Amino acid sequence: MLYEKLKNLLSEWDLYTSKEAEIPERIMKLEKWSIAKSVEITIAEMRSNNELEKISEEDKEKIEMIFNYLSIMASTK
């Protein structure tokens, strides 16, 4: 169940980070932050339930980008 939640969040991330997205930057920034924090929480839940092995290599790359985004955003505040 947590893996499905993570997959949905990663799909949303793809939507908001695609070059075709026609969303105002102000809204996109808030949505990306919200999705990234949700991914962070879901990963923590998966870690506590020993479900991290379900994550594919492709998803791990997306998660790494999301965590990098969170780090960048935190450093600019």
In terms of DSSP E residues, the strand content is: under 5%
Helix share, percent: over 70%
In sequence order, what are the helices and strands, one letter per element?
A: HHH
Query: Quick one: biggest sheet?
Result: none
Number of helices: 3
Shape, per Cα inertia axes: globular
Instruction: List the domain count as a whole number.
Output: 1
Contiguous runs where pLDDT drops below 50 for at least 5 residues: none
Radius of gyration: 13 Å
Distance between the termini: 34 Å
Overall pLDDT level:
93
Helical/strand content category: mainly alpha
Number of strands: 0
Described by its quaternary structure, the protein is: single chain
What is the compact description of this entry?
By secondary structure, this protein is mainly alpha-helical.
Describe the structure.
This protein has helices at residues 2-17, 25-48, 57-75. The chain starts with a helix and ends with a helix. The chain is globular, with a radius of gyration of 13 Å. It is mainly alpha-helical. The relative contact order is 0.17. The protein is 77% helix and 0% strand. The mean pLDDT is 93. The protein has one domain. Helix 1 (2-17) packs antiparallel against helix 2 and helix 2 crosses helix 3 (57-75). It has three helices and no strands.
